[in-house]
């Protein structure tokens, strides 16, 4: 009988300790422990970012992408056609290292965009206007995308303009 009581108490203590540990430090799939007290944040490991605007009634589009290459360089591509049938503008550049992602990481850290998860649809529906979207790749293969048809958190109000202004400055 004593063994059963001691075993039950021991199991209860272990269960409580496990619950306290899980509650004290919840982990998302994007927070990865590097060592004691250190976490890798997704915005520090962005290796691709794209901005795209298309679908308006004029048929135009604009696409900008910054993507790290296997050799460590970063490829910038820009393509734009202001309206259906117009001549397309295209630009391609290479950057020597991933330091070009630092301003994007700063915007992501400030807005918290990579931790937003699924967003509700916006109540504002604009017909015949282009849909603008931004996509981030981090930790080599994780992706998060958001577009302007969603209700953004308050900190995200300048997300699209901040990312666009930086990417277009690289042109």
Description:
With 171 residues, the protein is of the alpha+beta class. 26% of the residues lie in helices and 31% in strands. It contains three helices and eight strands; from the N terminus they run αββββββαββα. It has helices spanning 2-24, 102-111, 159-169, and strands at residues 32-35, 38-40, 46-54, 61-68, 74-81, 89-95, 131-138, 142-147. Strands 6-5-4-3-7-8 form a six-stranded antiparallel β-sheet, with helices on one face. A two-stranded antiparallel sheet has the order 1-2. β4 and β5 (74-81) form a beta hairpin. α2 runs antiparallel to α3 (159-169). The longest helix is centred in the N-terminal third of the chain and has 23 residues, at 2-24. The chain is extended and about 85 Å long. It starts with a helix and ends with a helix. Residues 22-35 have low confidence and may be disordered.
How would you summarize what this structure contains?
This protein is an alpha+beta fold and 171 residues long. The protein has three helices and eight strands, in the order αββββββαββα.
Radius of gyration: 23 Å
The share of residues in extended strands comes to: 25-35%
Query: So how many helices?
Result: 3
- What is the first-to-last residue Cα distance? 78 Å
In terms of structural class, how would the helical and strand content be classed? alpha+beta
Strand order within the widest sheet?
6-5-4-3-7-8
Helix share bin: 25-40%
Gross morphology is: extended
Largest sheet: 6 strands, antiparallel
SSE string: HEEEEEEHEEH
* Number of β-strand runs: 8
Low-confidence stretches: 22-35
Mean pLDDT across all amino acids: 84
